[in-house]
UniProtKB/TrEMBL annotation:
<keyword id="KW-1015">Disulfide bond</keyword>
<keyword id="KW-0732">Signal</keyword>
<dbReference type="Pfam" id="PF00732">
    <property type="entry name" value="GMC_oxred_N"/>
</dbReference>
<feature type="binding site">
    <location>
        <begin position="506"/>
        <end position="507"/>
    </location>
    <ligand>
        <name>FAD</name>
    </ligand>
</feature>
<keyword id="KW-0274">FAD</keyword>
<dbReference type="GO" id="GO:0050660">
    <property type="term" value="F:flavin adenine dinucleotide binding"/>
</dbReference>
<keyword id="KW-0285">Flavoprotein</keyword>
<comment type="similarity">
    <text>Belongs to the GMC oxidoreductase family.</text>
</comment>
<feature type="binding site">
    <location>
        <position position="232"/>
    </location>
    <ligand>
        <name>FAD</name>
    </ligand>
</feature>
<protein>
    <submittedName>
        <fullName>Protein HOTHEAD</fullName>
    </submittedName>
</protein>
<dbReference type="GO" id="GO:0016614">
    <property type="term" value="F:oxidoreductase activity, acting on CH-OH group of donors"/>
</dbReference>
<dbReference type="InterPro" id="IPR012132">
    <property type="entry name" value="GMC_OxRdtase"/>
</dbReference>
<dbReference type="InterPro" id="IPR000172">
    <property type="entry name" value="GMC_OxRdtase_N"/>
</dbReference>
<feature type="binding site">
    <location>
        <begin position="546"/>
        <end position="547"/>
    </location>
    <ligand>
        <name>FAD</name>
    </ligand>
</feature>
<feature type="domain" description="Glucose-methanol-choline oxidoreductase N-terminal">
    <location>
        <begin position="277"/>
        <end position="291"/>
    </location>
</feature>
<dbReference type="Pfam" id="PF05199">
    <property type="entry name" value="GMC_oxred_C"/>
</dbReference>
<dbReference type="InterPro" id="IPR036188">
    <property type="entry name" value="FAD/NAD-bd_sf"/>
</dbReference>
Length: 569
């Protein structure tokens, strides 16, 4: 590369990275977003991105600045749906089991009820909104450039990150964490630092959610097409006359089942990028013939490349929550405060009478709604021990612990050849003994917080912690077998509580892990023009909550890919 071109590249990138984008659309009025129905049966683009989720949206927005991009999302838009957009309705979308729901429920073989996103914005349209970066050590271990990572975080934060209100309940939890030794007090920060802090949120001060779909405001409207209700059935490869398969197109179907094909334009820099999520990405690779050959052959799928690591290394961070009834009202809040203990667990809190999702009816909600996110039976709260009717408001909150990592690992297998069907997933919660030890330490930390002076006003004085564990355990939140035997009527031990009340915090990851399925540039090993960029590539969950880092990664890799494209011209 001569000096003139090198200087031109530097100037071009500097203008792009640091100048405002003048020609942009504002959410939700994107001129480039439309339903897939009625679109051409054949089309051509520089980049085809499969999945408009937490990584796919920032990735597409970035690449649209100097290329033509097709972003294919199997769900609809998150806008104009109060069950998604309003903090007070949190949980309503997760407990919606209809085919039109933005959430698709699945149950792992471990008996834990879970959900995957089916909406533009991905998990950021469904989650509890906590925004916090990965630690500097994590960034370094992933091989990311620290400067570009920080720039990418700031790019995301300018659109979707806010400081939470920090009400009395959350403040009491913070003060309780500090009182029991989870120090220092790190105040409000996006950074991942041992101690106690208030993190960010993607809910603004009016309680409106801002998802990764809002990052499409950065997109060049002339360079991007976003198609909704466009389900990709397989990736197409050219194999004749090549030393290895070359991805060159996709087949997707609209909501009426009409098949469409999108192909890459000519050019060695053009690529297909899979950002379909932890379940969707390995599933789609397998449906396209890339995966364990025996499993593909069992489904009568033509093997393009035998890749035994696809679908392996699946992890889900165990989450256990303790319900604490309060004698005084508790403000509506999701995750705001976190104690980063340094002992392998993170302690967080959420509460308020509307917590759990009241839907769009405006009638408020009850504790029943919270459990409906995890249980297929809406009548679970009718147990005598909870003494809560379906109409009784939820006054109190949950203090929860999440096991970092985790170390336990599982796998994913195809159930059918239909991409709309969930694959079979096993996470093997607490298979590794250290995960259980971490959970126990987390529960012990919660006990100390609940018994702290700082938290006293939000707890009934005559309710022991053993009573609270028994109270929480009495309402099944998963499909794992209940405790049995002579000690079943006694309060559970911390180990028993961890095993029997484990749920998900929706931070599952793996299946296309870096170094096994993709290389350090997220290119699928052994295949040209194909990358995977999302949480399926991660072998260890970033920070306390991953969404900030996944959005950052979409932007980060978009910039890197754009640099590669300019350098190859």
């Amino acid at each position: 590369m001569d000096r003139v071109w090198s200087w031109r590249l530097i100037v071009t990138l500097s203008l792009f990275l640091h100048s405002p984008i003048c020609s942009s659309d504002k959410a939700p009025n994107y001129s480039f977003m439309r339903d897939a129905e009625g679109t051409p049966t054949t089309s051509y683009y520089d980049y085809i991105i499969i999945g408009g989720g937490t990584a796919g949206c920032p990735l597409a927005a970035t690449l649209s600045q100097n290329s033509s991009v097709l972003l294919l999302e199997r769900g609809g838009a998150p806008y104009n749906n109060p069950n998604i957009t309003r903090l007070s309705a949190f949980g309503a979308a997760l407990s919606d089991l209809s085919e039109a729901s933005p959430s698709q429920r699945f149950i792992s073989e471990d008996g834990v009820i879970n959900a995957r996103a089916r909406v533009l914005g991905g998990g950021s349209a469904l989650n509890a909104g906590f925004y916090t970066r990965a630690g500097t050590k994590y960034v370094r271990n992933m091989g990311w450039d620290g400067g570009l990572a920080n720039e990418s975080y700031r790019w995301v934060e300018a659109k979707v990150a806010f400081q939470p209100p920090m009400g009395r309940w959350q403040t009491a939890v913070r003060d309780g964490l500090l009182e029991v030794g989870i120090v220092p007090n790190n105040g409000f920060t996006y950074d991942h630092i041992n101690g106690t802090k208030f993190g960010g949120t993607i809910f603004d001060h009016n309680g409106n959610r801002h998802t990764a779909a809002d990052l499409l405001e950065y997109a060049d409207p002339k360079g991007i097409t976003v198609l909704l209700h466009a389900t990709v059935h397989r990736i197409l490869f050219r194999t004749r006359g090549t030393t290895k398969p070359i991805a060159n197109g996709v087949v997707y179907r609209d909501r009426n089942g009409q098949a469409h094909r999108a192909y890459l334009k000519e050019g060695s820099s053009n690529e297909i990028i899979v950002s379909a999520g932890t379940l969707g990405s390995p599933q789609l690779l397998m449906l396209s013939g890339v995966g364990p050959s025996a499993q593909l052959q069992a489904q009568n799928i033509t093997v393009v490349m035998d890749q035994p690591h696809v679908g392996q290394g699946m992890h889900d961070n165990p989450m256990n929550a303790v319900f604490i009834p309060s004698p005084v009202p508790v403000e509506v809040s999701l995750i705001e405060v976190v104690g980063i203990t340094g002992e392998g667990t993170y302690v967080e809190a959420a509460g308020g009478k509307n917590f759990g999702g009241g839907g769009s009816s405006g009638s408020g909600s009850s504790a029943r709604d919270y459990y409906a996110m995890f249980s297929p039976k809406a009548t679970l709260l009718e147990s005598n021990s909870m003494k809560l009717s379906s109409a009784q408001p939820f006054q109190g909150g949950f203090i929860l612990e999440k096991v970092m990592g985790p170390l336990s690992t599982g796998h994913l297998e195809l159930l059918t050849r239909n991409p709309n069907d969930n694959p079979v997933v096993t996470f093997n919660y607490f298979q590794h003994p250290d995960d259980l030890k971490r959970c126990v330490r987390g529960i012990q930390t919660i006990e100390r917080v609940v018994q702290s002076k700082a938290f006293a006003r939000f707890k009934y004085a005559d309710m022991s912690f053993e009573y609270l564990l028994n109270l929480t355990e009495s309402t099944p939140v998963n499909l794992r077998p209940p405790r049995s035997g002579p000690g079943a009527s006694l309060p559970p031990s911390a180990e028993e509580f961890c095993q029997h009340t484990v749920t998900t915090i929706w931070h599952y990851h793996g299946g296309c892990v870096v170094g096994r399925v993709v290389d350090g540039d997220y290119k699928v090993i052994g295949i040209d023009r194909l990358r995977v960029i999302d949480m399926s590539t991660v072998g260890y969950c970033p920070g306390t909550n991953p969404q900030a880092t996944v959005m950052m990664l979409g932007r980060y890799m978009g910039v890197k890919i754009m640099r590669e494209r300019l350098a190859n011209k």
